[in-house]
Amino acid sequence: MSFILYWWMKTEMRYLESLSSSRLPLSLVTICCVIMSYALCIGATIKKLIQKTIAVLAEPKRSAHTIIFVSPVMKGKWSCGVCRKEVDRDYGAYTCNVCSDYAVHTRCALRRDIWDGIELEGVPEEDKDIEAFERISDGIILHFSHGCHLKFETSGVYDENKFCQACTLSINEENCYICVECNFILHERCAYAPRKKVHPLHPHPLIQKAIDENPVFVCGVCLRISNGFIYQCANQDCNYILDVVCASASEPFDYQGHQHPLFLALDPNEKPICHICKSTEVQNVFNCIEVQCDFIICFKCATLPYLVRYKHDEHYLTFCRGDEASGSDWCELCEGKLAIGGKEGFYKCNDCCTTLHINCLLGLEPYSKPCETFPFNDGELRYQRNNSATRPICKDCNSRCQYPTFVVHTEDMVSYFICTFFNHP
């Protein structure tokens, strides 16, 4: 009997230690170790103590509401909102009072990369959504980012010279809102994007802003340069920012290049390899949770436009994996070969057999709008479209700039051209 009690207590202790990354209080350990003869009674007391301790309102990344520990969970089939594995209702879980279908394993909810460690017992939830725009009349809105009215337009024409101010991508036959007084444009989806949102990769709410000073920034997930709108952490002590494209990527993620929905459900101890770029230096990835499907894609590849127009092709080009390239494929722009089984994807038109490198088609900084000027040191930088008859010569590589955009650096009344101001290949 004593052996059974000892084994049971060891199991209980392992269970308790798994609930938190820190050690249990000494008093709790003492209770568990000393009063062995009352193991069953103590076990019940400990579980009540655990519930009292962790049944506090917490705000993990994947829930827009505070959640509380419940044991047992209501009847039904539950899957964890973090790891997507089955939840055993008898062991309890964190659940949401607002979302009836949301539950999280205790172990997952208390992961350091999920929870910021702040208990919210008795703390009221913050205000709900912040409206991004005011509806003036049918088809007319006043967006927070612009002082003039925006008019809804149904676009059926591709215009490579028109860019969304929020996501910086071109207007590809998409509905949009256009300023009635200037050339300010927003995609319909970007205009409707929430002003405040909870993102699964950050524990605090994010607020959308249209930045005016120092408009160039680095996205905290894909690490790309952008000069569009940002989603910035609402916590003043946190400098976390995302571009609009990465901020819009949520679970389940519907990636057009894969047949199953994708989730941020990979075990944090695993070292992922992106199936597109083959990179092992990625931290944030989407993965498939279907049985016998190990598809993984990093944020940088997942947020690239899947369909893109090229000025010399009447069809859309589709994003393809590097291992889909053949020995006869070459880039129409730079006339270089596509690396067979290479470490990056490429774009291809199946109708015209046109293929292009990502950088050649989108540029080295695909999320930087052209014709945007911003101060730099004692001068200024300006992104310019590379569509003139003569391509400029880059000051850094001494070659003609082959990418869709280049940078004009002006200082002391002198201007010179560079392919990119950041990460020149």
From TrEMBL:
It comes from Arabidopsis suecica. It comes from the Eukaryota. It holds the Pfam family C1_2. Keywords: Kinase, Repeat, Transferase. GO terms for molecular function: kinase activity. The keyword Zinc does not apply. PANTHER family: CHP-RICH ZINC FINGER PROTEIN-LIKE-RELATED (PTHR32410:SF153), CYSTEINE/HISTIDINE-RICH C1 DOMAIN FAMILY PROTEIN (PTHR32410). This is Protein kinase C-like phorbol ester/diacylglycerol-binding domain. Residues 311-371 form the Phorbol-ester/DAG-type domain.
